[in-house]
Amino acid sequence: MIVGINKAVLHILDAMSGVTVFSDTELDSSDASINNFITKHIEKVYDGAGLRKGEFFSGSGLKYHINEYLNGEIDFVRLSQAIAERMYEGISASEDPESCDIIVCDCVANESPMIAVLKCDNKIGYTHQVMKEDGHIQNLLINHYAILPTTSQRISECAFINTNDFSISYCGKTRKIDGEKTDLMADILLEGVFDISPKESINKVNKIAKKVSADNGGDSVETTAKLKQYFAENALNEEYLEPKKMAETVFDGLPLMRDEFVEQIEEANVPEKVEVHPYI
Q1: Strands 99-109, 136-147: parallel, antiparallel or unpaired by DSSP?
Q2: From the CB of residue 112, how many other CB atoms can be counted at a distance below 10 Å?
Q3: Exposure on the CB side of residue 28, measured as CA atoms within 13 A
Q4: d(CA 212, CA 149)
Q5: Residue 261, SS3?
Q6: Which of 25, 52, 69, 96 could tie 194 with a disulfide, CB 3.0–4.6 Å?
Q7: Whole-angstrom Cα distance, residue 257 to residue 271?
Q8: What is the pTM of this model?
Q9: Which helix (H) or strand (E) holds 81?
Q10: What is the pLDDT of residues 188-201, one digit of tens each?
């Protein structure tokens, strides 16, 4: 894929100490190391099977602020600060507050204009420190408390908003906020409705197929083998996989199991078409 960074801002959110540092200026996205760091992280997650697709609620605050930016009513730094402030509200209210950096980008991904939000969790790492005293050099090993994820690591929470049609792709995780399980990205920042991801869909299909087979006296191992064969034969040539068509193949000659499988995948909100990704 092709990623181009137009603008980027980094904000520091440390809910553990209650310290936030909101930047007043953009990063130098023309700097090769900065550009490479952000680009590699976007490339690693943007086309992934773990991203959920969705759309904003009409009253979404983020959608309102992005419109302000696109209409020239606020600049990019102010947009990024509004995003960081909203993220900090959720993180600081969590039962397990954390330290992270937020990178907000105005970028192009696969020729589509995007606002990207990358939540970079801080890690504790080690580095060296050179001390010189009384003419003697001492090399020390010390903790460093704000190590960002390397470009070989996958960011677990991020969002991409297409500024042409306001469609959303995101990945997130739940945490307890005000006593309730809450997805920081989906519920606090984006405020929208989302499908389950292709990866979640395939996992549910596998789980449901094995359960239906086991509950009806079938061979769950054979069912799993048929599913794998179906994926292998169709994933290379099809843009989407259709669970109902899987049912016809996997439960061929077993109408009761087939119908129960279809009923359960509908109850599990598995999409009628699941986007194909390389991992399938």
Answers
A1: unpaired
A2: 13
A3: 4
A4: 41
A5: helix
A6: 52
A7: 20
A8: 0.75
A9: helix 76-93
A10: 999 998 887 788 88
Instruction: Tell me the one-letter amino acid at 190.
Output: L
Instruction: Using pLDDT thresholds of 50, 70 and 90, give the confidence band for residue 279.
Output: very low
Pick the closest to residue 243 from 48, 251, 218 (CA basis). Answer: 251
CA nearest 183: which of 75, 59, 87?
A: 87
* Residue 272 · residue 231 · CB < 8 Å: no
Q: In the numeric block, which tokens belong to residue 124?
A: 């504790």
Cβ distance 78 to 11 under 8 Å?
no
Amino acid residing at 212:
V
| CA distance linking residue 101 with residue 9, whole number of Å | 10
Spatial distance between the Cα atoms of 206 and 104, rounded to a whole number of angstroms: 36
The gap from C-alpha 148 to its chain's centroid, in whole angstroms, comes to: 17
Confidence of residue 226 (pLDDT cuts 50, 70, 90): confident
Contact 188/90 with Cβ under 8 angstroms?
Answer: yes
- 123-160 pLDDT, tens digit per residue, is 777 777 788 888 888 887 776 666 788 888 889 999 99
Instruction: Output the pLDDT for position 144.
Output: 64
Distance separating alpha carbons of residues 75 and 82, to the nearest angstrom:
11
What share of the chain in percent tops pLDDT 70? 95
Question: Residue 76's pLDDT is what?
Answer: 98
